[in-house]
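Input:
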Amino acid sequence: EAGVAQSPRYKIIEKRQSVAFWCNPISGHATLYWYQQILGQGPKLLIQFQNNGVVDDSQLPKDRFSAERLKGVDSTLKIQPAKLEDSAVYLCASSSSGAFQETQYFGPGTRLLVL
Amino acid sequence: DQQVKQNSPSLSVQEGRISILNCDYTNSMFDYFLWYKKYPAEGPTFLISISSIKDKNEDGRFTVFLNKSAKHLSLHIVPSQPGDSAVYFCAASARTGTYKYIFGTGTRLKVLA
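Output:
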């Protein structure tokens, strides 16, 4: 079974530029998560989708971050404009239905460096 | 407000010995706990979990202990192997809302051959 796919793996941009990350979850998984992991910290949930609807975006900086999952399968996370403090690894995860005690499966992440 | 804390950023253990990784939490609503393991340039992978109705869960060389009164859990790896060298994250979830995971800051384990 294929795991969670993410691209690109690395991205370097200047501050104030825009960037987009793509995620393809495990086939059949209804729930998709985007996390931000800053160096030295644990992953922090940015947004959670159930199919193509948002169920939690309470920690998403909505003035600059946006995410969509239009057909309930793959998803895109965008930052516009980027700030220096956005340098982090962006992890995508998926789970079967988002039920309690369900395991989340993570992709390899996209490492973003903002200069 | 760090609800899940891993106070030891790093730990070194000799191969064959026991590794003990600790995690503390502050939110009494948490009732499901997990450990994830992360190698460099890879995403975290699920290792083991425990529900608050239990105080111990075992899976091969890995055992997680939960002390609800102390709001503390620990991961024991016996015996430790060089391939266990990785960053270990503790995470917690509550049975309310969206069941989201709250992660600790991680402990880097190095197993010395």
